[in-house]
Amino acid sequence: MNARVDDNVVSRSLAQIGECGLFLLKVLAAIPRSGRYARETVRQLWFVGAMSLTIIMTCGLFVGMVLGLQLYHVLSIFGGTAATGTVVALSIYRELGPVVTALLFAGRAGTAVTAEIGLMRATDQIAAMELMAVDPLAYVAAPRFLAGLIAMPLLCCVFCALGIFGGHLVGVSWLGIDNGTFWSNMTDTVEVWQDIVNGVIWKSLAFGAVVALIAVFQGYTAPPTSEGVAYATTRTVVASSIAILALDFVLTAFLM
Amino acid sequence: MSQRKSYAVGTGLFIVLGFAALGYLATQTSSVANRHHGATYTVDAKFENIGQLKERAPVKIAGVRVGEVASIALAKGAPVADVKLAIDKRYADIPVDSVATVFTSGLLGDQYVGIEYGHARQYIADGGKLGLTRSSQPLEEMLGKFFGAGGGADAIGGSYDVTARFSNVGTLSAGSPVKMAGVAIGRVLSVQAEPGKLDALVTLAIDNRYNQIPDDSSAAVFTSGLIGSQYVAIQPGGSPDMLKNGDEMILTQSAMQLEDLIGKFLVNGSGSGDKKDSGSSATPAGKH
After folding, report:
1. For residues A160 and A77, is the Cβ–Cβ distance under 8 A?
2. Do B7 and A43 touch (CB under 8 A)?
3. What is the separation of C-alpha B153 from the centre of its chain, rounded to a whole number of angstroms?
4. How does pLDDT run across B52-74, given as a tens digit for each residue?
5. Domain ranges of chain A
6. Considering only alpha carbons, which residue of chain A is nearest residue B24?
């Protein structure tokens, strides 16, 4: 990126993707070396995971509630309100849970990681680490990547659970679907392997890896100016969102 | 130090919460919740037609779930389905002359096996057999007894046009199939209202291969299935003359509304509202 300036948009974005791929290899290679900084990984996990809980839970609740409300009204046309629980659960597990969690995660945690690393570079902290023989890939990049990888599936599970609760709240408590019908239709249809492992776990792991990689990469390669950090933060959100939605299609085609 | 401890605790809480949510999703909202691992015993039942019955479908007695369908296979040497039912050991006192039936929950719901108790003093044992079974009654068959039958559409070569007048065509539209004996023999070309005669003029394009239709045949507007699309059924008459291009079919029967039909069978048409099978509780006590 700082090696040469290309005017061509295509070759510039190709170069970005290529650098990102190489960066992924470097981070993966640095993961074993980051073992001694386990505490830093835990701190990052706290920052990107535990601190994101509030927004994830709130959004999960509202997504579930609005799904319950919409589905109840549409399904009542066909006399099928009993299927509300099923459809809420399936749509949250298979699509909305992983995708919305990943988008929120990119906005909440990815931007913060990018800005933090970008400022570290701008204020020469990373250069200082190198001088002190501390590998910045192992100390800065790898813990944040690992934290994103671990936090995403957990956040997604919380999101899904709150979504089901929201759907139950609207469907059963407010709109009067029978409680037993709601749960039994859901448990009849949802398969552990197909929906929860393939839908929730694998997808959110993949999204977590992608968002964390993009966030760390953009921060790590940001131009060391305040403008550069601002652009890098924006690019994190844009690139993550596109990558999540594109990857979602591919993963759905493979996993379902 | 306290700063470090607080985030460690927070992270731990976060991880525990995440895994708790995963455990909740996997065990409470998925099919695992249905699988209770109590001891079961296996009972054999053979059905001529199991319809949409699937493995792990519930087995019910008096509406109470007592087990599930363990396996479904085609019996050797006969076109009957061999269904193995895994029934909870707690319900070990099922008389040997009980009847197993494939039921549908609701009109469009899933199918399950219902067992009605017999009167024998002997109880069915592990690996035993339910000799008396009743097969699934496909809704289409039941309705087909009242109405015409459904069926797939056919490719069409050349065709000839006949017209028919109906006082009510329901939701019939251009492109709907025309069937005779359940076989698609043509398409509806157009449906037009005739203001002068206050009825609907329907033009049917019938495949040239089917040119042996007596000209006193009757045309009726039927519905395929309960909520299916509507089609024109032709019931052949006995005239020696055949329908030709441009003829009009005189005998027609208009679309019947399902609501009308059901109203004729059921006297208590006023909706009771509660459609769930609340057969097990005599008083709706919990509804307040």
Report:
1. no
2. yes
3. 20
4. 787 778 888 888 888 888 888 88
5. 36-255
6. A161
Give SS3 for A80: coil
Distance CA A185, CA A177 (A): 12
DSSP code, position B242: B
In terms of pLDDT, which residue wins out, B205 or A158?
A158
Question: Is A45 close to B17, i.e. CB distance below 8 A?
Answer: no
What is the C-alpha separation between B193 and B187, in angstroms, rounded? Answer: 18
Tell me if A53 and B17 make a contact (CB, 8 A cut-off).
yes
CA-closest candidate to residue B92, choices B62, B57, B122, B47: B122
Report the greatest alpha carbon distance in chain A: 70
A50–B14 C-beta distance less than 8 A: yes
Q: Are strands B159-166 and B64-74 parallel, antiparallel or unpaired?
A: unpaired
Rounded CA gap, A221 and A118, in Å?
A: 7
- Residue B19: pLDDT above 50? yes
Question: What part of A 1-30 touches B (C-beta under 8 Å)?
Answer: none
Q: Which two tokens stand for residue B268?
A: 């208590």
Judge: A158–B18 Cβ closer than 8 Å, yes or no. Answer: yes
Going from the C-alpha of A94 to that of each of A87, A131, A166, A193, A195, the distances in angstroms are 10, 47, 17, 12, 6
pLDDT band at A6 (very low <50, low <70, confident <90, very high): low
Question: How far apart are alpha carbons A186 and B142 in whole angstroms?
Answer: 30
Asked if A255 and A94 count as a contact pair (C-beta separation under 8 A), the reply is: no
Structural domain boundaries of chain B? 35-137, 144-265
Q: Which residue has the tokens 């087990």?
A: B67
Of chain A residues 137-176, which have a CB less than 8 A from chain B?
A: 150-151, 153-155, 157-158, 160-161, 164
Q: How confident is the model at residue B274 (pLDDT cuts 50, 70, 90)?
A: very low
